[in-house]
Structures are given as structure tokens and as C-alpha cells.
Amino acid sequence: MAPPAQSQRSQSPSQPSGKSEVSDLKLQLRQLAGSRAPGVDDSKRELFKKVISYMTIGIDVSSLFGEMVMCSATSDIVLKKMCYLYVGNYAKVNPDLALLTINFLQRDCHDEDPMIRGLALRSLCSLRVANLVEYLVGPLGSGLKDSNSYVRTVAVVGVLKLYHISASTCVDADFPSTLKHLMLNDPDTQIVANCLSALEEIWSAEASTSEEAAREREALISKPFIYYLLNRIKEFSEWAQCLVLELVTKYVPSDSSEIFDIMNLLEDRLQHANGAVVLATVKVFLQLTLSMTDVHQQVYERIKAPLLTLVSSGSPEQSYAVLSHLHLLVMRAPYVFSSDYKHFYCQYNEPSYVKRLKLEMLTAVANESNTYEIVTELCEYAANVDIPIARESIRAVGKIALQQYDVNAIVDRLLQFLEMEKDYVTAEALVLVKDLLRKYPQWSHDCIAVVGNISSKNVQEPKAKAALIWMLGEYSQDMQDAPYILESLVENWDEEHSAEVRLHLLTAVMKCFFKRPPETQSALGAALAAGIGDFHQDVHDRALFYYRILRYNVSVAERVVNPPKQAVSVFADTQSSEIKDRIFDEFNSLSVLYQKSSYMFTDKEHRGPLEFADELGNLSIGEAAHNVISSQRVEENDKDLLLTTAEKEETRGSSNNGSVYAVPYDSSTSVFASQTQIESAISNPTTAGHSQHASFGIDDLLGLGMPAVPDVASPPQLKLNTKAALDPNAFQQKWRQLPVALSQELSLSPQAVASLTVPQALLRHMQSHSIHCIASGGQSPNFKFFFFAQKYEEPSNYLVECIINTTSAKAQVKIKADDQRTSQAFSSLFELALSKFGTP
């Protein structure tokens, strides 16, 4: 019987015609199932390839299960592999169908070909169906005793799979003791490594409930077994060597001679071509000598050359991994690597992530003997075309200066940066000059002479502008134009979007007032008036505090705001020594690359929210928001969605409007005091404390008995653009840049919750109120929406993140705005629109 002709309606596997195509495949497979004609295996291959192609692109071909199993009765190993792949894919989701495969898989486990035996056993253990575990015990027992090493290797891994499916079945069959026997007696080192890996996992899990398992786990790090593995380590594969070396780090030698024996035995592993083996060996050396200070320092000298060789000879990814470990070592012993600083010079063709890490290394190894050469090299990078690297290099120069190495030359270099007339260079240099002046006040004369020539209009970055304003306030007595520069900044208060800059401006004007009162009085009055009316809670509170303490006593205010300052001796480290020690204990792991302990990124409660770019990229964009992301994705990205209402109330204090604390605030009353009243209080402090003219909408923040305020007229109603448009990339960029103007929780009506069974209904409803959705996602009960709106006839945007939980009928809303003065008015419009959702 000749193989049947292919169907004329057959399409390309990448363009299937649908159910008819699957039906044709089913018919053809059935015709070939019992055929023994010449060339039938070639025809089966073509059909199997089509089935696998359809399965790969997501077409359901589970209806072919029976035919695929029948066609697997062949000695062709390629057909066997494809059939096993198909069976493994559908067995877990169709346990009933998986039962059909047991007979032919068990039969293949006794095939003459060891490759087929191994593949069949692997597929049988990969079914992962709990009610089929009884069929695994026999084949696994035979596989562990098989004469072929490949079959034994597969069987060892299969025992671990069985343990995860049914731990009791695995233990009752006495597989752990069989693995132990293989580990100690099998001539194949790959089988030994697999047994070691499986037993570590099994005995670690069983140790909490079984004393025998606990003893066996301890036996793995006994002297006889460790020496047995070390004497065979050259026979192991690279992966297996890393496994053995990781086990050796847990072994505690009895005396120093044993330590030296182990190190001598592993000496040649430091010259291995594989970076993982070298790092694993380095970890062994470091851990063994922790209690031997002198030897530990010698170990640093010994491991230096192999690690530096790996940095320069491997791929950029390997270089980064090794550099991360070197950076950890440099932080513990910088003097050991100080003479090798040239190895950390950046190469022109290196990726940015490697350059950035090398800059950190140069900062760490700098000392009195090499500071000049390192700073000279870093200054060359300041003109780099890669702007982020140029910024990092300038910061590195500042960090070295703060370490008290050759400060004179470094200050001159930083002042030269201020004259380069590049915005980003000037911005970074200003921040560093501020820190230098905090530590070295004696350099104020030289620094201020240069800083005074910089126009505040040319400094746009918030941190740089805040640094400039700090210097204007701190050294206003030495800068002739300081009061007038601050006054111009206060006049442009509404155009300053950064709360950090506004906070610094308030403090700087206060300091300037105490040093040059006549020239600063007007600016201070205007600053306090603007600050008290500011939308940002921290700015508002600071301005109110300054105003009240001035009313109380100007001398007290000066002692609080502008006391004599001592030089800062040490700046706070971003990582505590405890965290660094914990990362060192996890040497040769991802902890070193992430620079945080493993629990920080493996325990779910410690994971931070993903960046908005990833979040927005996984949501539906624009009008085609029909496909929503899975509830699991929402759970991972938005851990705040999992909080109960009570928990959210408990955490509200730390997230109110971006403030560290929350102050009761009545939005229906005015918080503005007239500039005349504030200037009067400043110019006449003795009577200001008894003045009854100033009034605020906050209840006596400092217990000074402030009188209540009368109601004032509500602001004019905000009008939105009905045809607003915003590009998703522009939305994403603005969301990152703008601070949170308002954060609140709104309640939803039962009708609104019921209407959310179709999330698009909310999108259409909000659009009817000129509030447009740019991205949405989620599944019941958690939904997430990103909205935007634009002010009528003005290029001013409002951005909204709205997270709705239908179980609690609550909506968590965050609002960001270009014009933050009108954010409260927009919030009212948004709340009104949301309250009408679901109503007829």
C-alpha cells in the first residue's frame, strides 16, 4: 500500500486554514497509523512537522492525540521525539488523554535503543499528572539500573520530578537511597552531579520532618564525601564543577592545614576558561579563609589576576558579571586593587552598563597615589558623546573629592566644568560643588566666584537648580546679586514644576532675609504667600511653618533656619555594612549583580512595582483596548491592589501627595494669605504675633492659635478639550517626569461596579466627559486605567492612573498635571464624571 497523496487543500504550516486542516491531518494520520509501506516514515515526518507547527503557533490539535499515539509505533527516533514533544504539551491540560500514552511510553522504556529508552522515560516523567505516578515507579527503578549512562542520567532527574509530583511516592519507593548509591559508585560524573543536585533538593525539603533526611543532608558536607568529590573534580563538566564547589563552600575544615590542602587542590581551577568555575573557586577561597585574616588578604592578591583576565577576555556580559564581583571585593579591600586601576579605564567600544560599573570601580580604588591619574582620565570622559556616561564621570570626580584625595586639583577641575557651557555638565558640576562646600567650606570663596557668573535661567534640571538656590541662600552675603536672583525666581514660582526646587527656594529666601533683610523682605513675603498656597503638601507645610515661626519670634526663626553649620565629615552610605556582608555571603549569585540580598528580589512582598514603561507596554493602547492582561500580571505589577481597604487606610499617611506625612486639609477653604499681611508680619515681628489679619484653612499646625478663615469664592470652573489627543510615548514621558499632584480614594456605586463587567463602558463614559483612556488592563476584580485630558484652548495636560477594585467598590486615583494649580479643579471634574458612571 503506497502512502496516500497529500491533500490538495493543504496550506503552509504558518497559514493553516482552520478546522478543516486539522481534520485532514487526522484523516491522513489514521491512514498512516497501520501502514508498513516503504517511505511511510517520511510521510509521517511531514505530518508530524505540521502538527508540531500548528501546536507551536497556538492552534488546538489535541483532537489528534489518539492518531499521534498510534503513529508512534516506529523505530524512527525523530518521529519518537516529535511525538513525545506533542504528548508532553497536551498531557498536563488533558489528564484523561495522558492515560492513553502510558502503555506506549512504558513499552518504549524497554526498547533496545538506549536513546529511545531515555527519551521515553523523560517524557513519562514529564507528564506531571498526579494520578499517574504509580506508573512511574517501575520504569524509574529500571532506568536507575540501566546499563546505559544516558538512561541513568534521565532517570535521576526523573526521580526529582516524581518527588515534586508526589513526595510520599518517591520516598516510599526508596529512591533517595538508590540515588545515594549511584552518587558514590557510578563511574559517570554527570550522573554523580545529577544525583548530588537531586539529593540536595530532596533532603533539604524533607529535613524539617525527617531526622534521617537531616542526617543525610549533613553527610553531604562531611570530610570523606567532600574529598571524594574534590579528587574527581577535573572529570566533572563545568556545570557540575560549579555544583561541587558550591557544596564545598558549606564545608567547615577542622584545621588550617585542611584549608590549605583544599586550596592547593583547587588552585588550577582559578585558571579555568569558564568564568562560572573561576567565580565558584574564588568563593571557596574567600569563605574558607574568613577566619584567617592574613591568609584572607593573600587570597585577594591571588584571585586578582584571574578575575582581571576574565574581565578583559570575555564577552561584555561576562565582563559585567565579573566586574560586579570585583566591585564587591574592591569595597572590602580597595588597597589590593589600587595599583591595577588602569584595568578599569573605559574602552570606546564597551557598552554603557560596563562603562558605568568601571566608573564605580575607579571611584572605589582611588587613593593618594593614583588620584591625579584617575581624575585626569575621568575628566576626559566628561566630553563623551554618551551623555549618561559623561554625567557619571563628573559624579565620580566629585565622589573622589569627598574622599579627601587631592582636593585642590579636583576643585579646580570641577570649576572648569562649570565653564564648559554644556547644560548637563554644568548641572552635574553644580550638584557636586554644593556637596564640596558642605564638606570643605574653606573653598567657598573660589567656588562662589565662579557660581555667581552662572545665570539661573540657564539651569533647568531640578537637582542642579536646587543646588544653585542652596548656594544663593547659604552664601548670599558673598554674592552681591543673590537677593535679586532669588526674587526673580520667586516671581516665576508658578512656572517651577519641581517641589524640590520650591522647597529649596523657600529656605534660601529665609536665609538671605536673615543676612540681608532690606533687600529680601519683599521676596520673602512673596515666597511665603506662594508657598502657603502651593498645591504640594510639603511646600505648603514648610511655608506655613516659616510664616508662623517668623510671627512668633524672628530671632528664634533665625536659630532654626540659619544656625551656624559645621562641615559634613562623612556623607551617608547608600548601603549599610550589614547589607554588604549579606551580599558577600551570597557571592557568585544574582545578589552581587543586583547589589541587594536575594530575599529582596525572590520574596514577593519585597518586590517593587515595575517601571511604567513595562506596565504601559503590557496594557492595551488607545481605542483597541479589548485585550486585557491576566490577573496574575496585575497582581505582580500592582501589589497595592492586593491591600484591603483597612490596609490602604493604614498606609495612606506615607503616600499622601508624595509627602512623608499627611496633614488634614480642607479643600473648600482658602489657604492663601495676602502678600501684604505676610510682609507686615515680617517687617513688624513684635506685633505680628498678635495680628488677627492672617487666616489659614489648616487647624493650628503648631498650636499657635490661628484664627479661622472666612469662606472665599470658588475658583472658576475648568473646561476641557473635547478633541484632546496625546501620543502614548508622550504620555509615558510625562508620567515619569511629573510629580503626583493629588492622590485620593473614591467610592463606586453598585451600578458602576455592575457596569464594569464590560470595562469599555467606562472608557466610553469618561470620553463623553472629555476624559480619554490611553491604556487599560486587568481582570475582575482588579482593573487599571490610564486617562488623560487637556485644558480647553491651552496645551496643558492632566494624566490619571485609576485602579478599581470591584470587590471593595473603591477607586485609587493618582493625578499628575502640567499646570498643577488646577489639579484640584480637574480632580473634582474626574470625581463627578466617575460618580455618574452606571447611572441611566
TrEMBL record:
Keywords: Membrane, Protein transport, Transport. Transmembrane segments: none annotated. The keyword NADP does not apply. Residues 718-835 form the Beta-adaptin appendage C-terminal subdomain domain. InterPro entries: AP_beta, AP_complex_bsu_1_2_4, ARM-like, ARM-type_fold, B-adaptin_app_sub_C, Clathrin/coatomer_adapt-like_N, TBP_dom_sf. It holds the Pfam family B2-adapt-app_C. Belongs to the adaptor complexes large subunit family. Subunit of clathrin-associated adaptor protein complex that plays a role in protein sorting in the late-Golgi/trans-Golgi network (TGN) and/or endosomes. The AP complexes mediate both the recruitment of clathrin to membranes and the recognition of sorting signals within the cytosolic tails of transmembrane cargo molecules. This is Beta-adaptin-like protein. It comes from Hibiscus sabdariffa.
